[in-house]
Design brief:
Blueprint lengths: L1 H17 L7 H9 L5 E5 L3 H11 L9 E6 L6 H8 L3 E3 L13 E4 L6 H8 L5 E3 L1 H37 L4 E5 L4 E4 L1 H7 L11 H5 L14 H8 L3 E8 L5 E12 L5 E10 L1 H61 L5 H32 L7 E3 L1 H18 L2 E6 L7 E3 L1 H17 L5 E10 L4 E8 L29 H11 L3 E7 L3 E9 L6
Parallel strand pairs: 1-2, 1-4, 2-3, 4-5, 12-14
Antiparallel strand pairs: 6-7, 6-10, 8-9, 9-10, 11-13, 14-15, 15-17, 16-17
Helix pairs in contact: 3-4, 3-6, 10-11, 10-12, 10-13, 10-14, 12-13, 13-14
């Protein structure tokens, strides 16, 4: 046995020679070991576990353990624990058999698990030194590693918290940090400013309770919940919501949600950003409203030209009769003048002829003037409008055609009807289209009734236009105001009439309703608000 130990000593002498750059002199080791306080520990195995243990001891992670690592042995001088030991001034060697000869050594921890090491260590170790085998050492090592990982996770959490705090402080858009149950974990200053609430009144409550003042999450089609979508899909989501601000005024907000996932790719928390688009939305709506008004004016004029074509067809016949009479009277007067036998009776007859000519030519001029006025495209002008006056002007334009179709007109116009505020030409076009529809529903004659009245309770003017025509099928009643819907043949129109009527009435803040029965006729009821400044 002594011979074997001498052989090992020779081997150690050889190893010391080859690894001299990694070792201190024996004398210096003895001197250092005498000054160590607490248990002096030597480690066999300079890997990551050794590194973790050295780092924790260096940072005083073990509050009640005053141990000192006095030596590290590993065959790989580039192992991370081995290198860290050298940086900390700890004795290092590439031969574990150097360790038992250290002075004041209390404990040897073996972390390699190699067979044969323990036998050599037990034989050569100092009497006072204990040797922990691989199993116990591995357990201690795992505990060290676990604690190291725990500390690393703590550092990661601290870093994450720092990043979140920086994110909250740096983002100028309102921002929530939400749990899966919709409860608010944090809110940044812009969000608190938007809500007008201190943080202690926001944190811990649900987002829908704060933003929508509701106990239930958003679940309607008009108020889609992006948070719910993010929790379901694990992806970002987007929606537009109407919220009340600190002064209870409605604000339109774009809501964006972004998931924060754990290591299992499950959503742990959600960032919810707000972006106020109220001003931008109002600007867009304003531009859209101007465009709609422009399109409506163009559409009204185009439809008016279609109506004008229908009017001209009957007006030509109405104008033709007085012109024919004027022509006949003019020829008669010329023939009388050619005979050179004018008497007092002839002069009196001429006077009557000229009165007829003046009357008929005036009637022709009025018809033409009405047609020109109706066809003229004008910009929308808001002014007081007398509904009864508009109805009379429309009847004047249509009466000859009604006579040709054998349609009787009955008027029940309220003489005390208040004025409305609106565009005369557009309302005239509106009533004209409804009357044309009624006339076309009575191709073989019938009765057209025009009523006006005033509902004092709601301050609304009512216009009822009734016919005794063919009626409208029930399945068509809900779509007759849709653009391009028509039951007529293509040559008779493109179905813009009633859609233009609907647009004009809505532009004037009014409503239109229809009641109809097949074979008995229809009644269109138009309601306008009493005169006002704006609409």
């Amino acid at each position: 046995m002594a011979k074997a130990r001498r052989s090992k000593g020779a081997d150690r002498q050889s190893t010391k020679t080859t690894t001299k750059k990694h070792s201190h002199s024996s004398e210096s080791r003895k001197a250092k070991s005498k000054h160590c306080e607490g248990p002096n520990i030597a480690i066999i195995g300079g890997g990551t576990r050794c590194q973790d243990l050295l780092e924790m001891l260096a940072h005083d992670r073990f509050k009640h353990l005053k141990a000192k690592i006095v030596a590290v042995a590993d065959i790989d001088p580039e192992a991370p624990g081995f290198l860290l030991a050298q940086e900390q001034g700890i004795y290092t060697t590439t031969d574990y058999r150097d360790l038992p000869h250290l002075d004041n050594l209390d404990l040897i921890i073996e972390l390699t698990g190699k067979e044969g090491l323990l036998k050599d260590l037990i034989e050569d170790k100092p009497v006072q030194a204990q040797v922990l085998d691989f199993t116990i050492s591995r357990l201690i090592s795992d505990m060290v590693t676990f604690k190291g990982e725990y500390k690393a996770r703590e550092r990661d959490l601290d870093l994450s918290q720092t990043m979140i705090n920086t994110l909250f402080a740096g983002i100028r858009e309102p921002l929530f940090l939400l749990q899966q149950d919709y409860r608010i974990l944090d809110a940044n200053e812009p969000m608190l400013s938007l809500l007008g609430l201190p943080k202690e009144e926001v944190v811990g409550r649900t987002c829908h309770e704060i933003s929508h003042r509701s106990l239930q999450p958003c679940n309607s089609k008009a108020c889609h919940c992006p948070m719910k979508e993010t929790l379901k899909t694990g992806l970002s989501a987007h929606a537009i919501h109407e919220h009340l601000d600190r002064e209870n005024q409605p604000r339109y907000l774009e809501v964006f949600t972004y998931p924060l996932k754990n290591s299992y790719d499950h959503v742990d928390m959600v960032f919810e950003f707000y972006r106020d688009i109220t001003d931008d939305l109002e600007s867009r709506l304003e531009r859209k409203a101007r465009q709609v008004k422009k399109d409506l004016a163009r559409l009204v004029h185009e439809d008016k030209m279609i109506a004008l074509g229908k009017l001209v067809a009957s007006s030509v016949h109405e104008i033709n009769n007085p012109i024919a009479g004027i022509h006949t009277l003019a020829k008669l007067m010329l023939r009388t003048l050619d005979e050179d036998q004018l008497e007092a009776e002839d002069l009196e007859q001429f006077r009557r002829y000229l009165e007829l000519v003046a009357h008929e030519s005036s009637r022709c001029g009025q018809i033409v003037s009405n047609l020109l006025s109706f066809s003229r495209q004008q910009e929308m002008q808001r002014r007081p409008v007398d509904i009864n006056d508009i109805i009379r002007s429309v009847i004047l334009l249509c009466q000859h055609r009604m006579q040709l179709q054998n349609i009787a007109i009955q008027e029940k116009l309220d003489p005390k009807l208040p004025e409305i505020t609106g565009d005369y030409n557009q309302i005239q076009q509106c009533i004209m289209n409804v009357i044309f529809n009624a006339m076309e529903a009575m191709p073989d004659g019938g009765k057209l009734t025009l009523d006006t009245s005033f509902e004092r309770k709601n301050r609304m003017i009512h216009i009822d236009i009734s016919d005794t025509g063919c009626g409208i099928p029930e399945e068509n009643l809900s779509i007759i105001f849709d653009p391009f819907f028509s039951t007529k043949e293509e040559s008779q129109g493109v179905g813009l009439g009633l859609s233009v009527v609907y647009g004009i009435i809505r532009e004037h803040q009014g409503n239109i309703y229809v009641q109809s029965e097949l074979g008995k006729g229809s009644t269109f009821t138009i309601r306008f608000p009493e005169g006002q400044k704006d609409f």
